[in-house]
């Protein structure tokens, strides 16, 4: 199907052509594409939502199907507007290639509503908790954990999978997902899929629709903001993010060192307690004590340094005295001789 036909096909299904904004979404897409290749459903490049919004105006302003601008680039070649205004992705590495909008290719759509996404249990793989970027929620059932993953967004990154520990009711939502095949029980791993495959336009409800335009039929302009996805769900999205559970054998929910009233106190009371606890009595500091008296040092190294210093001082003084001993003796004899002559003269 052409790019325009693929765009209408996705819209008919309640979605839009796939948007690969960044590395996170690229990784999530790669899982789906790999599965389609392994199942022999995908053997060629496919249409994605990237297109030149002005078509033959050749200004080279590309946007996604939700009108968001390019923030990460995965071009396989430098795009050149020579009657080519639509973009496909490689089935091997998801790199982008600009091509005529009339080319016949399959397409991958994405759902616009988070609740239209599906979570499938994966028994062969699991999330690598050391390399994945995740948020942890405590005390949730497995079904509530799945709902959280469908709606969860943090710092513009959505949940692409979850790990659930039924023994502790711990829900781990993965925003940046890296998987491995060596898994640790009892964690159960689910992968989120928001994509669907369209091989030809014949399955559309409007089967008479065809489009051979060389320009993409874009709803975007050069200054449009991204189209916000609508959340058509009856769920309530919670935003309480708690730290991951500790792995030490004896730790619990209590933090040592905090007063008993901490859990039932207001934020201002907690701040006042912390300020009071962190105050330092300057009169007990070493710098203030040294102003009153010399601080003692009972370390053996300190005593050794003192003894060595005294010995060096004694040796220096003794050396000076020994070197001047002869002169000192002559001066003493001369002094006694002078005194003796003075006494004789008096007599």
Automatic annotation (TrEMBL):
<keyword id="KW-0472">Membrane</keyword>
<keyword id="KW-0812">Transmembrane</keyword>
<protein>
    <recommendedName>
        <fullName>C-type lectin domain-containing protein</fullName>
    </recommendedName>
</protein>
<dbReference type="InterPro" id="IPR001304">
    <property type="entry name" value="C-type_lectin-like"/>
</dbReference>
<feature type="domain" description="Apple">
    <location>
        <begin position="115"/>
        <end position="194"/>
    </location>
</feature>
<dbReference type="Pfam" id="PF00059">
    <property type="entry name" value="Lectin_C"/>
</dbReference>
<dbReference type="InterPro" id="IPR003609">
    <property type="entry name" value="Pan_app"/>
</dbReference>
<keyword id="KW-1133">Transmembrane helix</keyword>
<dbReference type="InterPro" id="IPR016187">
    <property type="entry name" value="CTDL_fold"/>
</dbReference>
<dbReference type="InterPro" id="IPR016186">
    <property type="entry name" value="C-type_lectin-like/link_sf"/>
</dbReference>
<feature type="transmembrane region" description="Helical">
    <location>
        <begin position="300"/>
        <end position="323"/>
    </location>
</feature>
<feature type="domain" description="C-type lectin">
    <location>
        <begin position="1"/>
        <end position="110"/>
    </location>
</feature>
